[in-house]
Amino acid sequence: MRKVKIIYNPSSGRQTIERRLNRLCQLLIDDGYTISKFTTMKKNDAMNETMKTCNEDWDIIIASGGDGTVNEVAKGIANSKRKVPVAILSSGTVNDFANYLKLPKNINDFYNMIKRENTIDVDLGKVNDEYFVNVAAGGLLSSVGYQVPTETKMLFGRLAYYFEGLKEITLQSFEPIRLNIQSEEYTNEEDILLFLISNSSSIGGFKKLAPKASVSDGLLDVVIIKKTEVHNLASIFFSIFSGDHINHPSVKYFKTNKITLDSNKAVELDVDGEYGGTLPATFEVVPKALRILV
User: Mean pLDDT, the chain, as a whole number?
Assistant: First the structure.
């Protein structure tokens, strides 16, 4: 008899998640699985419940929510001695990580994935003492994820991020950040507008923002947009859809397993869509830290 712990965020998924989870639970119970559901109420609930689950005899964790919920479950796994396999059921606004892995959204397909128990081990990123499954970022637009109100996300979904992003662009004067970059592959000090330290290629709903990224290569992908004119910035953003932005002269793109960033002023970090402190910070990869059902 297999035991499955479901950890879900009820505020994700525009209030449809309960119905989908009930359908999944019925399928699993009818097939002899033991099920327990845990509802998150506040920050770190998913992380703490994951750590508790890893210390008990559960076989699978189903994480249902947005990238923030997946992030907390991943942190719980990383802080535990036992690597319980995780199945990710998308129900949030963007779900970059689940989309990158092409995980099923249909409940019957998701149930069959659990039955097969085919897993892969994927990397995590780490910034100081925080983990991320997808991306850590700073600069222009990087604060959009954690500044969009929950109510707005539920009403408008992915569009909420773009609305907030457009508002931020109109409020900012494109003031650059003086960034000190230290890594084995690239070391420099330069004026930049945005940096992304990514584990997967899909960021903020853009599927090719870090087009050569892989969650299993033991490396993080670094995207740096340097100080440039507004018309160049528009050209870079339009080319993100094709992944061709990495060839623009104002973009620096490389892979590394560790990088340290510092700045001449306080720069807020976005870590998987949540506030993650400020620079200076050291980012590094944690190879094969998370086991995912695919």
Answer: 87
